[in-house]
Design goal:
The complex is a heterotrimer of chains A (440), B (168) and C (318). In chain A, 75% of the residues lie in helices and 0% in strands. Chain A is mainly alpha-helical and 440 residues long. The longest helix of chain A has 34 residues. Chain B has 168 residues and is mainly α. Helix content of chain B is 78%, strand content 0%. The chains are: A mainly alpha (440), B mainly alpha (168), C alpha/beta (318). Chains in contact: A-B, A-C, B-C. Chains A and B meet through helix 1, helix 2, helix 3, helix 4 and helix 13 of A and helix 1, helix 2, helix 3, helix 4 and helix 5 of B. The complex binds sodium ion (2 copies). The site of one sodium ion has 6 residues of chain A, from loops.
Chain lengths: 440, 168, 318
Amino acid sequence: MSYEMIAIFMFASMMLMLMTGQRVFGAIGGVAAVAALTLWGTGGSDIPFSSAMKLMKWYPLLTLPMFIFMGYVLSESKIADDLYKMFHVWMGPLNGGLAIGTIGLMVLVSAMNGLSVAGMAIGATIALPELLRRGYDKKMVTGVIQAGSSLGILVPPSVVLVLYAMIARQPVGQLWLAGVVPGLMMAAMFIIYIVIRCKLNPALGPALPVEERNHSMSEKLALLRAGLLPIVIFFAMMIPFVNGWTSLVESSAIGALTAFLAAVVKRRMTREVFENSVRNTLLISCMFMWIILAALGFGAVFDGLGAVRAIDNLFTEQLGLDPWMILILMQLSFLIMGTFLDDTAMLVIVAPLYVPLVKMLGFDLIWYGVLYTITTQIAYMTPPFGYNLFLMRAMAPKEITLKDIYGSILPFVLVMILALSLIMIFPQIALWLPEYVYAR
Amino acid sequence: MIGFMRAFVRIVDPINRKLGRITMYGIFVMMGILMWSSISKIAFMPSLWTLEVAQFAMVAYYMLGGPYAIQEGANVRMDLFYGEWSTRRKAWFDAFTVLFLIFYLGVLLYGAIESTAYSLEYGERSPTAWRPYIWPIKITMCVGIFLMLLQAISELFKDIATLKGKTL
Amino acid sequence: QSKIKWRMQTYAGAALAEHVITPAINSFNKIAGDEMEIELFFADQLVPTGELFRAMQKGTIDAVQSDDDSMASPTEVTVFGGYFPFASRYSLDVPVLFNQYGLNEIWDEEYSKVGVKHISAGAWDPCHFATKDPITSLEDLKGKRVFTFPTAGRFLSQFGVIPVTLPWEDIEVAMQTGELDGIAWSGITEDYTVGWADVTNYFLTNNISGAWAGSFFANMDRYNELPEHLRELLKVCMDQSHYYRQWWYWGGEASLRVNGPKMELTSIPDEEWKTVEDAAVKFWDEIAAESETKAKVVNIIKQYNADMVKAGRPYRYG
Ligand code: NA
Ligand code: NA
């Protein structure tokens, strides 16, 4: 078989297997195993397991269970409740203020966990019922929570950027810092969008009634203390890391422990919270790890059979496109693949194909990491397949239909695409902070 | 046949469940190792073994926890179509496609056993200054993959039972 | 007859491979034409380094470029690959040891036992420390977490160095994430070529070995299946690759020490460094005590170095 045929055969069978609804890791691993046994030649049967040994050496993956645990502790223990109250009281008087407060909440939650799952859980369980009770438009509300929770992987710490860092062999610290300004910028853009929409149509986000907002100034100031918690967790983790006192994986353990202790101190670490956090951390970590394991095996077989060459060849030689065209095409293909591929699988299978190409074309890989993450976030949210969509469906109350969820994300996706374009045109949005910090 | 399948499921599922319930506390083991690593680095001499032990712990964590994750349905599926199907239809598809998963786990197990045998034969050690033997972690991986395989077969049996209108 | 296809995995990442292997493979493929093609894969690309030897032994990978030490080959000679402390002073020492002092025969015998063909050994660059903080005395080495070779690491740990082994491609990042304080893996040419000069500040001019010993290997069955002339071509191209490295490193080391803008040079005084050299002789004896084959190799290394000292300048100064 020619390289091109192998590439098409392997990709098509994987897609087909995924469509059947089999567990993602089984679908990917199954195709990899069949291809290894039939096409590799002698010794192909060893490739799937040797990927497990490769995975063991990927030490930054230790951050994965840590950040997942952090996220669960935060969402299960409801220590984010106080944060929400803070935003609620301070932002409530504005039209759309609670939605703006929710974005603020999401930014702080993002700084304490590495995935969008926790943001989603906190948003759906704390913010969503409140917002609906106050007569907010349900599409606006679900959109806000989905868009806001996607900040989780752009604002450090971020598991997606850790995975990207391993594939692109770029320093995690710089990638994380590169995500800060774009993350805040995107949050600001969401807020601007909410303000404009609610100005045009106040019914979408009514202000709090007067009797609910007569808090004394001292009460209001006392609420601000809630904001200290995320700051403490974030800096407990980031200061030793950025200063080089502790390594990446050590810092993630400090973060997880700090979050755990915070929950204990606030007397929120009940038996049930403990059970759910510990159990779900195992289940979600296993889910991720097995997908990565299967995808690494798939990648090695795909690569060893020459399929990677076929793809490079297609983009650079046969199509003869200029670098920017190739870059934009790659982003588009990510969005398309994101409609039916699982995100982790997409990261572990597709990124190894694209990253060397991006490097060869002369683009900055830190900058591309940010573009990549935002594109992944958009893919998270776009129907029909998106992790956030499913989570939203699982967590939202009955009155919110799938149609509402699908309909809610369009304006936010457009805002994200605008942000993506801005960062493409002005790379310094992403690169300024890491250059500033690491140039010292 | 249904008797055998029932016996199989009733043996395999509780074992994997118990193992998973023990493994889940591994998060604190990893946290402890990494905290020790940070403290020893800041306070006196960094330890030789922490990163490697943490890596081994992580491998044991997801390998031994894997069967429990399957049992709990934690593994994502692309549910574009699957999500809308009836239980029966899901069982039909799963009963076939799970063979792919079983095949994958079989190949993985074969590789694991081969690699472990090599480790034992040559007394393979990790090429680090600490130089731990590799076979303990490889045997752990063999056990984890083997139990994954049993769990996947258990899922197949449950699907077959669903199609026959029975529960196991 | 269909084209023979081999998969070869090198220890080097893409940037280094540009010099240490890609040119030789391109030549081989050009000359072999329709008869044979070697597809080159970089460090950890198909299989992780830890599984590399086994993969070649089984035929998952057909050929490998590596030193014996970092791929942990299960032979008696593994410790001598890579940087066996102070065994060599110049890069020409290695081919002389293999071709004129009998190491080729020992290697051939050892690798045949485990189903692997040892094609050819060559010398690469010297082993120096590249670090974030300056090293001017042995005291400065204490507590430094350093990426290095397994055997070199074993040797260096007596001076308080904490040896760390990570996938080669992760080193640059590990320097930045704080997993490492330094690298003792190469000369200055490589530090610049692969980007390590960007993440370290200092280069220690004292080395722990003058030249790296590394080799080309192949799966024995695959090798035996090749027609005579392709085996010959393989050998010639591998030797050509060693030759390229001789001048590339030799010239590069001098030029970058003199003109390189990114790393500041520091030294440990010779009298103090003598402690390390003396420790090496003790280390040789420890290794020799482990087995008969190892004793044989250590004796050869001792003999060779004694001969070089007697030969005087330019073989040895002082
Ligand atoms: Na985050
Ligand atoms: Na999507």
